[in-house]
Amino acid sequence: MEAIVFFVSAAIILAGGLGVIVLRNPVHAALSLVATLFGVAVLFIDMEAYFLAAVQVIVYAGAIVVLFLFVIMLVGVDKAEDIYAEPIIKQRQFAALAAAGMLILVALVGVAFAGDVTGQPSNEDMTISRAIENPDGTTTPAETSNINQLAEALFTDYVFAFEITALLLTIAVVGAVVLARRPKGDLQPLPDVEPSWALRKPRAVTPTEATDPSAGDDADQDPDETTVDQAATDGAETDEAKA
Amino acid sequence: MEFDNNWLLSVMTFVPLVGAAIVMAIPKAEEELIKWAALITSLVAAGLGVFLLTDFNYDNAGELQYVADAQWISVINSRYIIGVDGIALPMIALTLLVVPLCIIYTMGHFPEPRNPKALLSLILILETGMLGTFIAQDLILFFVFFEVVLLPMFFMIAVWGGDDRRYASLKFFLYTMFGSALMLVSFLAMYFLADGTIVGDEANTFSMIALSDGATVGIARTSQLWIFAGMFVGFGVKVPMFPFHTWLPDAHTQAPTVGSVILAAVLLKLGTYGFIRIAIPMLPEAAAAWAPFIGLLAVIGIIYGALGCLAQTDMKRLIAFSSVAHMGFVMLGISTLTDFGINAAVFGMVAHGLITGMLFFIAGSVKDRYHTLDMARLGGLLISAPRMGWILGFCAMASLGLPGLAGFWGEFPAILASYNPAAILPEATFRGYMVVAALGTVLAAGYLLWMLQKTAMGTPKDEFVDNPEITDVKTYEWIAWAPLLALILALGLYPKPLFSTTDDAVVKSLQVNVMDDVPDCLNLDTDQGEACFDDLREQFEAAG
Amino acid sequence: MSEFLRSYLTVAIFGATGCLLVGAFVGLSALVRPTRPQAQKYLTYESGVDPVGTGWSQSNIRYYVFALLFVMFDVEAVFIFPWATRLEAYGYFGLVEMAIFIFILALGLFYAWRKGVLRWV
Amino acid sequence: MLNILAQPPTDAIPTPDVAWSGLMPLLILSGGAVLLLTIVSLAKDFIPRWFTPIYTVLIGIATGVAAIPLWLRVTDTPSAADPNNGPFATLDSSFGVDGFSVFFTMLFAAVVVLVALLANDYLRREDIDGPEFYVLMMLSASGGIVMASANDLIVMFLGLEILSIAVYVMAAMHSRRIESQEAGMKYFVLGALSSAVFLYGIALTYGATGSTNLVEIREFLSNVILLNDALLLAGFALLLVGFGFKVAAVPFHSWTPDVYQGAPTPVVGFMASAVKAAAFAGMLRVFWLTFGSYRTDWQPVIYGLAIATLLVGSFVAIVQTDVKRMLAYSSISHAGYLLVGVQAATNEGTATVLFYLAAYAFMVIGSFTVITLATGPGDAKTSLTDIAGLARTRPVLGIALTVFLLGQAGVPFTSGFFAKFYVISAAADANSYGLAIVAMLAAVVAAFLYLRIMMAIWLDGDEVADPTELAAAKAGIPVPWGAAVVLVVTVGFTLVFGLWPEPMIEMARDAVPALAIG
C-alpha cells in the first residue's frame, strides 16, 4: 500500500515539476508547483511524518506559493519576456544536454546506491520512532508523536539554529521593506554599453535589449516584440489546451 | 655590536630609501632642492661605499664580511641575513657609482615630462633595491629586493619613456615577473627539500649561506634539475638570455637615458649575479647538467645579438642588442663552471656595466641634440661635436673588446675558459662554443665599427649643419662621464685588483662544502662526477 | 492495509461525502429555481464594480510585503506549535527561547509597521 | 501557566548549557543590529545622520574587543589555574569557539567598522536610506560569524543564509540604478540556487553519516569504514558546489562580474572581503576539519577548481574595461589562491588561508574605497577611462590605489606578497608543485590587469596644467573623513604587514580550527 501511495505521489510530484518548467503561463506554472508540494506532503505522510506534512501544506503550498503568485502578478503576466531569444548560441541544446547528464548522474547515484544509506542516527533520543508492523498484522504505534520529538530536537541540538532563524526572518522583512520602497528621485539612465562578444552574434540586438532584459518593464517596449510575445503566449495556451 | 660589522651594509642600503622619502616630502616647486637632496643622498651612500671598499678585508674576500643576522619572519625561518664578499663587492661598488652619475646627468638635462620629484625618488628606491639584492643572504630577502627593483624601473619607462613606452614597460614588467614567479617556486622547493641541519641550521631554511654550504646535497637529482630550471628561467629573463631577451631592446629603446643606463649597468647584472650567487653554489649537480644547455643559449645569444645589431637602424636599439651579445659572453663564462670562467664573468659584468652604461649616456646626449637616433640621419659627430665623437669611439672600442680597455678582460678570458671547462662538462661541446663565441667577437667589431662609421664619421647631414643645439660635451656630462671613462681605462690597463677580489669568493662558490672530506665533484669526468654527487647523497642519507 | 492508512480512509469517506452533499444541493437548486439568463448576470462579481480589462492585471508591490509578513508568521507558527504541545517539558528554558524568538520577529513587524508599509493609502 | 513550568515535569528534557561568554561577540553584533532596527522604528525622524555610522562603528569595535578575551582563552592551553582554556563549544555542540572562529569574528568586526566608515558618505551622496544598510550589514556579518563558528551543518546553512540574504538586499539597494537591481536579482537567483544545492549536500551527508553535527560526523567518519561511500561523496560534491558559488570559484563564478559591477561599491567591498572570508571559513570547517579523513577524495577536486579559478580569473580579466569588473575577476583569481591553500589540507595551509583572507580583506576594501570616491555621484562611471588620470588630480588616492593594486599583484613590501608567498609555500609543502607553478604564472597574468589600472590612473587622461582647473578637478573628488580613515587603516595594514608579517602570521597559525564538544 505504501508503495502505491509512493508511486502515485511521485507521479504527481514529477508531473507538477514538469509543469513548472513547461507551462508558459507563470500562474499555471505556480499552480503546478502546488501539485508538487502536495505530492511531497503525501510522501511525508507515507513516511509517518505527519507534522512535516502539515507544515508542508501550510507553509509551502499555502504561504510560499501565494508569495510566488504575488511576485508573478507583480511582474505582470501579460508582459512575458521574449523567452525565445537565445543569448548564447545553442543554449537550449546545451541546457537539454546538461539536464540529461544531470538526470543520468542522479539516476546512477540514486539507483546504484539507493539502499546504501550508511549513517546511523547517532543519538538514540533523536530517532524518530516509527510504528512497527507486527508479523500478525497488528501494529505497535510509535512511542511518542513525532511532533514531540521534533520539539525536543528543536530545543536541544538545534536550539541555536532555531534562534538564528528568527534573525533570518527579520532580515527578510527588512529586505522586503527596503526593496519595496518607491525609489527616491528619477531612475538613472541606462549605461551605454556594447553587448559582450558572446551576445553580439547572430541576431541583431537593439541597444535597449542588450543592456538589460529586465529594463524592458519601464523602458519603452518595442511594439513588434510585444506582439511576438503575445503570439507566443497565445500559442502556448493553445498548446496547453490541446494537452 | 660594532658599527662597521653589522650596520654598515644596512645603512648603506637604506639611506637611498630615506632619501627618497625626503625627496617626496619636499614640495614640488622646490625643484633645485629636490635635485640636490637626491644627489646628496646618493653621494652619502657612495661615501659609505668608499668606506666599505677601504675597510673590506681583501685577504679574506672569499668569506662573507659585515654579516648581520636578525630575526625577520620566524614562522618561515626567513631571516634578515646580509653580508658581502668578493663577488658582491664589485657589484655594490658599480651600483653606488652609477646612481650618483645618473642623478648628475638628469640634473643637467631632465627627461620629459619633468616631475623631478617622482623620477629622483624612483631612482633612489631603485638603488635600495639593487643594493639590497647584492647584500641579501637570505632567499626571501633576495627575492623581495629583486622584485622591488621592478616597479621603479617600470614607472621610469612608463612615464618618462619614448613613444612606445606603454608596450615596453608592460613587456618588461611581465617578462621579469614571469621569471621571478618560477624562481619563487624553486626557492620554496629548495626550502622544503633541503636539510639545513647538516650545516648547523634549521631543517627548513632560506639562508643562502646554509644552502650554498651543502644543505642541498640530499635533494634528489631530478628535483635538483627542476629547481634549477625554475631559477634558470628567473635569472635568465633578467640577464637576458637568448629566448627570453625580447623585452630588452624594447625596454632600452623606450626608457629615458638614466633608465637605460641603470638597466644596462646594474639591472641586467642581477640575473648573472643570481646564477653565480644562488643557482650554481646551491645546486652544483644540476648546474653541471644544465651547463651545456646554458652555454648553447649563451653562444646563440652572442651570435643572435650581433646579427640583431647589424639589422638595426636605431642607435639605442643597436646598443641594446649588443647587450644581449655581451651578456652572452658573461653567461658563457658562467656556464664553464670553472673559477677562471666565472671570474671572467664577474669582470665582464662590471666592464659591461661601465661600457654599455657609457654608451647609453652618449646615445641619450645624441638624442637630446639631434632629437633622433636614426643612424641614417646621424653622422659627422666627430665634426659637429668632436669630443663626444671621440668618447663614442673610445667606448665602442672598449665594447668590442680592444685589449687595454675593460671590455677585453670580460670577453677574452670567458672565451678562453670555454676551451677548458670543468671536467664534468663535455669538453668538445664547449670548444665548439668557443669557436662560435670567437666569431662573435669579430661580429662585435663589425657592428660597433659600423655604428661608429654611421654616426661619428662622415660629414653632418644637411639638416643638422649649423644647428645651435648640437654642442659638444657639456660640464654636467663631463662630470657624469669622467669616472666611467677613467675606470674603463684603468681596469683595462690593470685588471688585477678586480680579479684578485673576486677570485677567492668564486673558488669558494664552486665548492660543495658538505662534509670534511670534500671531493671536488665538478672537476671529475662526467661519469665520475655524477657518481661523486650520488656518493655525496648517499653519505648524507647515511649520516641521517 | 496498514493501520495508519486505514485512518485516512475515514478522511477520504468524509471528503467524498462532503463533495457529494455539495453536488446534491447545487443540483437540487438548479432543478427548482427559475432560469432567466441576462448578460449582466454573467459578469464577474467584483464588489459591484465593473470589471475592466483582462483578469491578469498587474498588482501592487505592497501586496508583496504583506505576503512576506504572512509567510514570516506562518513559519513562526510552525515553530510555536511543537513547543506548545510539550510546553512543560522544556521549562523556563523553552519559554525564554521562544520569547526571544517571538521578540525578534515582533521587532521586524514593528519596523515594517513604523515604516508605514502596513498602511494602505 | 507559570505553575506548569514551575513543576518539574516527569519527562523533562535536559536543556543545553549556554556559554554566554563564547557567544558574546555574536550577541553584540546581532543584538546591536536588532537594537538599531528598533531605534530606527521608534524614532526614525529624530536620528541625526551621523548617529548610525558611529553607532555601527562602535558596535563593530565592541564586537572586536569582546573577541579579545575569547582569543586569549581559546588559544591558550588548559592549565591548573585556568582549566577552561582552549577551544570549547556551546549550545549542544552547535556553536564552536576556537581560534579559527574568533579570528574570523575579529576580521568581520574590522570589515564592519571599515565599510561603515566608507558607506556613510556614499549613502549620503547617493541618497540611499541609511539605517537599513547598517542593520543589514551587521546582520550579514553576524551570519559570517555563525558560519565561521558553526559546529553543525544546519547552523552553518542558516549562517550562510543570514549572510547572503542581507547581501542580496544590500546589492540591490541603489534603487535608482537599474544595474544595482539587476545585480541584486542575479546574485539572489544564483545564490538561492547554490543554497539549495548546499542544503541538498547537507541532506546527503546526513544520510551517509547520520548526523548534521560536525563533531559527530567527524567521529563517524574516523570510526566507521564505509564500504560504499557514494552517498557521502555526492554530499561532498554538493556542499563544495554550494561553497564554490559563495567564494566565486570557477565554474561557479558567473555571477561575480555582473554583481560586482552593478552593486553599490561599498557593498562590493563588503562582499569581496566578508562574504568571501565567511565562505572560506565554512569550507575549511567542513572540509578540512570535518571531512579531513577523506581528504584524498576532495583534494583533487579542489585542485582542479583552483587551477580553473586561477586561470579564468586572471585571463578573462585582461579583456575587461570596467574597473569594478576587473576587480571582480581579480577577486575570482584571489579565490583561486585561497583554494590553493585549502587544497593543501594541512594546518599550515589553513593558516595561509587565514592570513590571505585578512590581507585581502583590507586591500580590497581599500581598493573599493578609492573607486567609490573616484567614480563620483551615480556610482556608474567605473570604466577605465572614467578614472584615467586620477593619480594626477588626486595623488593621495592614486598612491593608495597603487598600494592596493600592488598588494593584490603580490609585490614585495605589501601584505599581498606574503599572502601569496605563504599560500604557495603551503602548496609546495604539500608537494603540489604543479599547482604552485600555475598559481605563480596566474599571478603574472593578473599583474597585467593591475598594471593596466595603474597605467590608467597615472598615465592616461589629460594633463591638467591650469591650477584652477586642477583645483576644480580635485574638488570633484572629495575625500570625506570616513573614507580617509579607511584609507589610512587599509594602507597601513597593507604596508606594515608587508614589512613585518610576523604578528599576523603568528595569529593565523594560532587560529587553527578545532572541533570541541560542549
Task: Note down, in words, how this protein is organized.
The complex is a heterotetramer of chains A (243), B (544), C (121) and D (518). With 243 residues, chain A is mainly alpha-helical. Chain A is built from 9 helices and 2 strands. Chain A is 62% helix and 2% strand. A two-stranded antiparallel sheet of chain A has the order 1-2. With 544 residues, chain B is mostly helical. Helices cover 72% and strands 3% of the residues of chain B. Chain B has 21 helices and 2 strands. Chain B has a two-stranded antiparallel ribbon with strand order 1-2. With 121 residues, chain C is mainly α. Chain C has one domain (3-114): Methane Monooxygenase Hydroxylase, Chain G, domain 1 (Up-down Bundle). In chain C, α2 (61-85) runs antiparallel to α3 (87-114). Chain C is flat, with a radius of gyration of 24 Å. Chain D has helices at residues 2-6, 20-42, 51-75, 99-126, 130-149, 153-171, 178-209, 214-223, 230-247, 255-262, 265-290, 295-317, 323-344, 347-375, 390-393, 395-409, 415-429, 433-458, 467-476, 481-499, 502-510, and strands at 88-90, 95-97. In chain D, a hairpin with a 4-residue loop joins β1 and β2 (95-97). The model of chain D has no long low-confidence stretch (mean pLDDT 89). Classes of the chains: A mainly alpha (243), B mainly alpha (544), C mainly alpha (121), D mainly alpha (518). Chains in contact: A-C, A-D, B-D, C-D. At the A-D interface, α6 of A face α2, α5, α6, α7 and α8 of D.
